[in-house]
Amino acid sequence: MKTILPLLIIILTVFAGTGCRQENVSPIRNVRFDPKLLNPLKIANNCTNYSYKAGRSLRHLGTVHTGQVVVAFRDGMTDAQRTEALSKHGFVTGILSQRASQSGMMYTLGLVSGLNCAQAEQAVRELTKDKAIVYAGPMFLVEGGQAVGLSNEVLVRADATGIAVLQQKVKDFNGKISGPLGADTYMVQLNKQAKGNALDFVNVLNQEAGILNASPDFMLAP
What we know:
The protein folds into two domains: 115 residues, ACT domain (Alpha-Beta Plaits), CATH 3.30.70; 69 residues, Peptidase S8 propeptide/proteinase inhibitor I9 (Alpha-Beta Plaits, 2-Layer Sandwich), CATH 3.30.70. 26% of the residues lie in helices and 36% in strands. Strands 1, 4, 5, 6, 7, 8, 9, 10 and 11 form a nine-stranded antiparallel β-sheet that branches. The longest helix has 15 residues. The N terminus is likely disordered.
């Protein structure tokens, strides 16, 4: 009995210590791996290597960051409603940060550890299906290990001849255009109904005459 009691104290201490982690996160209770997401993808093949055109150069982002994704929720949702919506996705640990953008609030979500890049891509697709979420996008690790999330916005500069081209491409992608925000500058919003993400749109637009520059908007993660 004298031996058992110290062992019980040690075990309880370990459990208490592990329950104090995940600081600066809005945690979701009873987080579990989602077997429908993970199991079929354990034998996944190569992941996508992402890049986009920046002027005459090509900027490489590599494969997606496996620890985080970025989303935008439907307008008018409360914190409790957002947490409830995310609780349906066992691969999400909670909201890590948020940032205001031209089109609304963007949220960085944490993913459970142990995912590969194919599973992180699938996580984005699963979140896109959620009616509470109007946009879901991947995150990438850039110089210095900084995580950045691909938002649903693209900044575009177009001259007088490029405005009609921009309007047509926005229509083709099922996006939304705002502006001008400044001298020849427009903002394009691409939610989950769009026919491609911000990288796809930039790669198409930067090939067109009259488009001075098109660049995707990224948000910094904590």
